[in-house]
Amino acid sequence: MRTKTDPEHAIFDAIEARLRAVDQIAKLAVAAKRHPESRVAEWLMRTADTLLAQIEAEGLLAAPEVTPPPPPRRTRRSGKQAALQ
Predict the structure, then answer these.
(1) What is the tens place of the pLDDT at every residue in 10-64?
(2) Angle CA 55–66–26, to nearest 5
(3) Which pLDDT band holds residue 1 (cuts at 50, 70, 90)?
(4) Interacting residues of 31 by C-beta distance below 8 A, sequence separation 6+
(5) CA 17 to chain CA centroid, nearest Å
(6) In the 3-class helix/strand/coil scheme, how is the chain assigned residue by residue?
(7) Residues 47, 49, 54, 60: what is their CA dihedral angle, to the nearest 10 degrees?
(8) Largest separation between any pair of C-alpha atoms in the chain
(9) pTM of this prediction?
(10) I need a labelling partner for 29 at 20 to 30 A (CA). Which of 39, 55, 58, 79 fits?
(11) Which residue from 45, 19, 47, 49 is spatially nearest to 30, judged by alpha carbons?
(12) How many CA atoms lie within 13 A of 3 on its CB side?
């Protein structure tokens, strides 16, 4: 059973917050497209830009760094070891 103090729970909360912010940006952009002539569209786009800048500043859009596993070690096998496998 997971508790709120589990590190996994914190990770999922952070991911959920990022998704909500991106969803807000998408909704603002769609609303601004519907009313391009209004001052509301300008405000919506500024708000979307602010949210996006905040996400970028926190490094939330960056892909996580994944280090490739080291290459497998090659070892010499004696004739007996090779025959057993």
Answers:
(1) 777 877 887 888 888 788 778 877 877 778 778 877 887 888 888 778 776 655 5
(2) 25
(3) very low
(4) 40, 41, 44
(5) 10
(6) CCCCCCHHHHHHHHHHHHHHHHHHHHHHHHHHHHCCCCHHHHHHHHHHHHHHHHHHHCCCCCCCCCCCCCCCCCCCCCHHHHHHC
(7) 120
(8) 81
(9) 0.43
(10) 58
(11) 45
(12) 1
How many residues are recorded in the chain? 85
* Structure token digits, residue 21: 């912010």
Query: So what's the pLDDT on residue 64?
Result: 56
Spatial CB neighbours of 24, under 8 Å, sequence gap ≥ 6? 48, 51
